[in-house]
Amino acid sequence: MRSALSDLWPAKLQARRSKGLFNVPWQEALKPMAQVLLAAEHLYLAEHGFVDRSSVLSRLERLFAGLECNESQLRQIVLFEFWLRNRTTMSHQQKLQAA
């Protein structure tokens, strides 16, 4: 498309790099968190019926293998899982402090 419209685009835009690699920082940030979940005995989201544990674990393995895993949805699952873990840990600590 760039070549077809090259006479209409300013030179600065023609020389611009593609933004197609935007997902790379997300993938790099997601992998350490995914590693923790792969090693975990419990997934709060699975225990509460939000997701299927085996499906999530399979998708995490596919992420590491560089295969299709619906990464944008998986990212939300991972972030939600860590949010729940953090919330549960903080709630437990508050109860201990109150006792």
- Number of DSSP strands? 0
Low-confidence stretches: none
Order of helices and strands: HHHHH
**What portion of residues is helical?**
55-70%
Average pLDDT for all residues: 85
Briefly note the structural class of the backbone. Answer: mainly alpha
Number of H/I helices: 5
Domain count, please report it. 1
Main β-sheet: number of strands, strand sense, barrel status? none
Measure the end-to-end span: 66 Å
Shape: elongated
Structure explained in plain terms:
- The chain is an all-alpha fold and 99 residues long.
- It has one domain (24-98).
- Helices cover 68% and strands 0% of the residues.
- It has 5 helices and no strands.
- Helix 2 (23-39) packs across helix 4 and helix 2 (23-39) packs across helix 5.
- The longest helix has 28 residues, at 71-98.
- It is elongated, with a radius of gyration of 20 Å.
Give the structure's gist in a few sentences.
This protein has five helices and no strands.
Give a topology summary:
Layout: H1 11-15, H2 23-39, H3 44-47, H4 53-65, H5 71-98
Helix pairs in contact: 2-4, 2-5
